[in-house]
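Entry for the shared binder. Reason: the reviewer on the internal report wants the predicted structure included alongside the sequence.
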Amino acid sequence: MSNEILSHTERGVTTVTLNRLDRKNSITAAMYGAMADALAAAQADEAVRVVVFQGHETVFSAGNDIGDFLNNPPATMGSPVFRFLRALATFPKPLVAAVCGPAVGVGTTMLFHCDLVYAGDNAAFSTPFVNLGLCPEAASSLLVPQMLGYHRAAEALLLGEPFMAEAALEVGLVNRVLPPTEANAYAQTVAQKLAHKPLGSLMATKRLMKQGQQQRVLDQIVAEGETFGQLLAAPAAKEAFGAFMEKRKPDFSKL
């Protein structure tokens, strides 16, 4: 595996860093696999109490790498992306994220599975699935309406337009907004606070908060995945991705 996903463990905290800055931290199938592996290792390691996800102070993630995505579409629930989403949704220890700059697609939806999220004031969250002829993933069609309320969720998921850090703070997606140069360090400070607490209590509390809907989340990931696969093969997605690769505006008027 290349160094596009960095995983480093120190003092009870595993930090997973998206490290593909030349491509705006867009995520390939191999990177999803590496993140799933990092979560599995952190879950199995009794010395690890917290996992932190971070990107760069200028960008968290531009979402899926479109070229890689078209060459390696997630054909089955065993695909790296679904392995990562299931690992994320079922991870029993605290998950913290530091998000600066663009957080597109899965760069936003993965945050709904994190326990604490800290954003740079340059963060821009967007879920433009419909604009690509697709549907939400990562159980976001369930979790986004729960957190944002239906109408704000419809704005985020149907229009797919970015919303900024202050709006994310207002609706509860992020815990605090900071200068971009401070977000990653602040997330580490919080992670160390958690790492000094009793792991059994942390895990029990997280389990109790989530247990009422964890199976529903996993079922939603499967249902979204099936619909996503059908839409990926449909004319609208073909037009959207063709337009993206050709750097033109898509034309859905006949679809």
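Summary line for the report: Residues 214-232 form the longest helix (19 residues).
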